[in-house]
Amino acid sequence: MVRHITDRVLLNNGVEMPWLGLGVYKAQEGKEVEQAVETALQVGYRSVDTAAFYHNETGVGHALKQSGIARDKLFVTTKVWNTDQGYEATLAAFDRSRKKLGLDYLDLYLIHWPVPGMFRDTWRALEKLYRDGWVRAIGVSNFQTHHLEELLATCEVPPAVNQVEFHPLLTQEELRAFCGREKVQLEAWSPLMRGNVVNQPVIVELAKKYGKTPAQLVLRWDLQHGMVTIPKSVTPSRIEENADIFDFEILPEDMARLDGLNQNHRFGQHPDHFKF
After folding, report:
1. What is the predicted pLDDT for the residue at 275?
2. Boundaries of each NADP-dependent oxidoreductase domain copy (predicted)?
3. From CA 169, how far away is CA 76, in angstroms rounded?
């Protein structure tokens, strides 16, 4: 059971990844993203998730450097964007991201979306980066079961992580079962349903029962499902609130009630219908 913000999960290649991280999607480059990362690190977060597409890698890197926290205590994730996919283009994109972040290596590098006809060549580039020591673990984002099956059929290094949309309205049961069998760690993006957790009566009711906010309840639900979770916020009080999820446990019957909210509803785009 996850009991502390410093607790980590063991990935399939032996690397340890924090269960909780800060997502910085839509955090503006410069002061906004720097302050968000600074606040998170002060609260105790040690994992930050960014992407080339977020256009804030420089700010993230600056905040990490200014923190004075030892590099080996941090876990930094970024992602290759769709227009940079392919073998050579991905290698170049990684180098740009790494330099913007100001790091000698990254902890996790992900394929942001499964671009048809491209992601296998992109994966070969990630395998090279992994073998050459530029990144400690490689993975994917927004991959459905069929994408993973295609990748696993030809890859030399299996993905360590699959970052997907996951919340009580989208419980991804088939994908969770598949990733469990293949030892691919799932990670939840948009865990708070873009703020819609407060609009679900069952979530609000159970949050009151546990003396927590709806956001804290759902993030704890993530962890109890074995999901790494990366709620995004630039508001200091929310960043701190999202980390206060390690002092309670949701009972099995209440986990089941939350699971029962599933509608296979997405707030983001479906990977099979993304306009690449």
Report:
1. 82
2. 27-262
3. 28
Domains delineated in the chain: 8-259 (3.20.20.100)
Query: Please, which residues have CB within 8 angstroms of residue 71's CB and are 6 or more apart in sequence?
Result: 103, 104
Residue 110's SS3 state is strand
Q: How far apart are CA 226 and CA 223, in angstroms?
A: 5
Distance CA 115, CA 275 (A): 9
**Taking 90 as the threshold, does the pLDDT of residue 1 lie above it?**
no
Task: Give yes or no for a contact between 161 and 136, defined as CB atoms under 8 angstroms apart.
Answer: no
The pLDDT value recorded for residue 272 is 93
Over the stretch 147-188, which tens digit does the pLDDT of each residue have? Answer: 999 999 999 999 999 999 999 999 999 999 999 999 999 999
The average confidence (pLDDT) of the chain is 97
CB 139 within 8 A of CB 106: no
Tokens of 128: 């090279």
* Separation CA 9–CA 160 (nearest Å): 11
> What is the Cα–Cα distance from 198 to 213, expressed in whole angstroms?
9
Binding residues for substrate: 112
Beta strand pairing call for 22-23 and 47-49: parallel
Pair 31, 6: CB distance under 8 Å: no
State the catalytic residue, choosing from 25, 45, 54, 130.
Answer: 54
pLDDT exceeding 70 applies to what percent of the chain? 100
Split at pLDDT 50, 70, 90, the class of 62 is very high
- Known binding-site residue numbers: 112
pTM of the predicted structure, to 2 decimals: 0.97
Residue 109 among the catalytic residues: no
Coil vs helix vs strand at 87 = helix
